[in-house]
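hey so i finally got around to running the thing on that chain from the lab meeting. sorry it took forever, my laptop kept dying and i had to restart like 3 times. anyway pasting the input first so we r on the same page abt which one it is
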Amino acid sequence: MMNKNIVSGLIATALLTTGFTSSALAHQAGDIIVRAGVAVVAPNESSPIVADVAEFSVSNNTQLGLNFGYMLTDNIGIELLAATPFSHDISLGTLGKIAETKQLPPTLVVQYYFGDAQSKLRPYIGLGVNYTNFYDNKFTDDLDGALTDLSMSSSVGLAGQVGVDYQINKNWLVNASVWYAQISSDVKFNLGDVAQKVETDINPWVYMVSVGYTF
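ok and heres what got predicted. didnt touch it at all, straight out
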């Protein structure tokens, strides 16, 4: 419900504020926009029942978020989302944490910005593709040697975004954005002598608050 409220609020901002303008130009064709701030990845995971115990659960994580945008026109831009590596704990029901992984989720989107080049408030929406690479996968509790050889496959999926920029002056802005990405990984490991493969959907919401600079 909180996810839907945040997204709905940003969309409402887009619809209600497109006429909020200033004499200072902002977000015009040819601009490069760099943003840096706090990014929170909140997995919305699901998987089959693992080892007759429970589904996998994946913890949230907060890291430095970075994105790099380029305005193709006054209203259309492209943006790359990057971040320092996210770390996640993997838990299994009442057994608690059994493993951990790290991941990098670069995401490229095409955006539409509402308003015009004179608007100080620029709500936007975006659609694109996410690539997520999982690495440093390891069991932290091998259940007395029963679990070995953990690996997680990389993922490619669709991604969507809503956000809003507020231009403080010609160069500086503040930003809030929400992303949703389709991320699915084949989790492979050995349970005793039996090889296991569990298709796990991560499908996280990503929340970011940042400060940006326009070149």
